[in-house]
Structures are given as C-alpha cells and as structure tokens.
Write a structure and sequence with these properties.
Layout lengths: L7 H20 L11 H4 L10 H15 L2 H10 L18 H15 L5 H12 L11 E2 L5 E2 L6 H20 L7 E3 L2 E3 L1 H15 L24 H4 L16 H4 L30 H4 L3 H16 L5
Antiparallel strand pairs: 1-2, 3-4
Helix pairs in contact: 1-3, 3-4, 3-5, 5-6, 5-7, 7-8, 7-12
Catalytic activity: Endohydrolysis of (1->4)-beta-D-glucosidic linkages in cellulose, lichenin and cereal beta-D-glucans
Organism: Trapa natans (Water chestnut)
Protein name: Endoglucanase
C-alpha cells in the first residue's frame, strides 16, 4: 500500500507475495518455533510464546485493507472465534497482535457500520479504557513519572506500540461519520483528543520529559544512555581496530565501564524500571538493549506528530 502510488509495479509484486505467504501460513498452520530445525536458534528469547492464530487474523485484516476483497473479510468473520479473536488480550507487539487486530478491524466497523465486526470495536474500546487512569475498569500500570509499564524486559516496546495504537484509533474515531467519536469507559468518556494526548505523553517521556531527565533515544538530547547492549555500538570501529575480533573476543568491550565508542543514533533502549530508575549498564540487556520492535512503532508515532505538530 505504501508504494501503490509511487511504484505500482513493485506494490503489486509485494501484494502478490503477501497473498502467497498468507495462503501458505493458513494451509500449514503452526508455530515456527515448533519446528525442530529452527527451535534452538529462536528460543528461548524469540519463541512463539502466544501462538500463531492472531497472526493469521492480522494477516487477513491487512490483506482485506490492501485488496478490499470480501474473501479476507469473510475469513475474519468465519475464523474469528476459532482463532481467538474473542480472547480480548490487551497486548500488541512482535509476538501478539490482538490489540492491533482489534483496532485495525474496528475501522471496517466504523466506516461501514458492519455489525458483524462490532465485537472488534468493543474489544478496541475496552483496550483503550485500560489506558485511562480515570477509568473504572482495571487499567495498565504507570510509573510515578507517567510511563506505561508492564513487567518483563524491554518495557519501552509497550510504550511505543501502545502510543502508536492510541494515535491510530484516535484518527479512526475522528474520521467516523456513523458512530460516536468517543470511547465509553464507565463514568468517563474519552475522545480522540484525549487519546492523542496519552500518546504524546509517552513520546515526551521517552525523549527526556521524565524524572531522570534522560532521553531513552540514543543520540537525542544532551543526556542519553552511553552503554547500550549492542555489539556494533560497543566494539571499536574497524578504523580504530583493524584486527579481526572473533565472537568471544568482544567480552572485554562488553564488560568495560567505558561509554560505547560508536553512538547508535536513534536507537531506543529497553528503558527504565517501574520506579523510573535507569542504570546505564550494558550488561542489563532488559533495560539497555535497543530493538527494532521498540523503534518501528515509534517511527510511525513521530511521523504522525511531525505531520500534525498541534494535534487536537
């Protein structure tokens, strides 16, 4: 879809192979990490912890958006229950697409008034309500400084993905002409402007408006992590160290207390703990490791904010 207007030929090629990939995944269902040939390489860090079912619905939803073919809409309607669409899991990331799926499919309901998809809209609303501290429903944890927090490693993956969904859903609600442009969270009604402000608050925190005054994006601002858990950033460049560095020979750099010699500009690290504390420690990968699944949704958020400097 991104290349449809600028390079339609390339766009058609991508779509054709996306359809083939979906058909293959639907025909040969299963988790990739169940394959004995690749399990040792994927686990324990990147096993398929949450199953493949949500990815099938996620793929069908995107193919519906890209093609507008009823085949994929029918797939979602026919397979939603068996593939766990009703699980209403408030999670969105590299391994779990449920919250993103609900937001994406909600656009069909909001634009087309398709009542068969109303459950996705209800689940998306429920997810948004968990992000509203004033909501009477149980809601997500925030640090004292206002950062979305979930236990486990690389917490900023939750802050960036949720900020992305907040902005997307706010836009969907703003564009609807058939439904109320707000979310009913018990005694609190939340509109698009409020959802956008929630997202902006997460962005501001990540970029330095937090109790430590630290930007968690490397190279941004005057105070950011210096000892990130990243091989290329922590080992000297070939200009400074032309000799070959074998796999295990990087330990001396990993264990060093010196700042990384190569600044990985733009990388977002795992982030602080639940009390807003962050130790600039290369060895604590749960906090100091940058990942693509932290950065990728943040790019979408920043693009929106750059195009809408004063969102309302």
């Amino acid at each position: 879809m991104a290349f449809r207007s600028s390079d339609p030929g390339y766009s058609e090629t991508l779509l054709r192979y996306a359809v083939k990939a979906f058909e293959f995944a639907d025909t040969y269902r299963g988790a990739y990490s169940d394959n004995a040939n690749i399990r040792d390489g994927a686990c324990p860090f990147y096993c398929d912890f949450d199953g493949y079912q949500d990815e099938l619905l996620w793929g069908a939803a995107w193919l519906r958006r890209a093609t507008q073919e009823d085949t994929y809409l029918n797939y979602i309607q026919a397979n939603g229950k068996t593939l766990g669409a009703d699980d209403n899991i408030n999670e969105f990331g590299w391994d779990n697409k449920h919250a993103g799926l609900n937001v994406l499919v909600s656009k069909e309901f909001l634009n087309g008034n398709m009542y068969s998809l109303q459950s996705y809209k209800a689940s998306a609303d429920s997810f948004m309500c968990t992000l509203v501290p004033e909501s009477t429903s149980s809601h997500i944890q925030y640090t004292p400084g206002g950062l979305i927090y979930k236990p486990g490693g690389s917490n900023l993956q939750h802050a960036t993905t949720i900020a992305f969904l907040l902005l997307v859903y706010a836009n969907y609600l703003s564009q609807t002409t058939t439904q109320s442009a707000s979310v009913n969270c018990g005694e609190v009604s939340v509109g698009p402007a409020s959802l956008r402000q929630q997202a902006i608050r997460q962005v501001d925190y990540i970029l330095g408006d937090n109790p430590k005054g630290m930007s968690y994006m490397v190279g941004y601002g005057g105070y950011y992590p210096q000892r990130i858990h990243h091989r290329g950033s922590s080992i000297p460049s070939i200009k400074d160290h032309p000799q070959f560095v074998a796999c295990k020979e990087g330990s001396v750099y990993f264990n060093s207390s010196d700042p990384n010699p190569n600044v990985l500009v733009g990388a977002i690290v795992g982030g602080p703990s639940e009390d807003d504390e962050y130790d600039d420690d290369r060895g604590d990968f749960r906090k100091s490791e940058p990942t693509t699944y932290i950065n990728a949704p943040f790019v979408g958020v920043l693009v929106y904010m750059a195009a809408n400097p004063s969102p309302s």
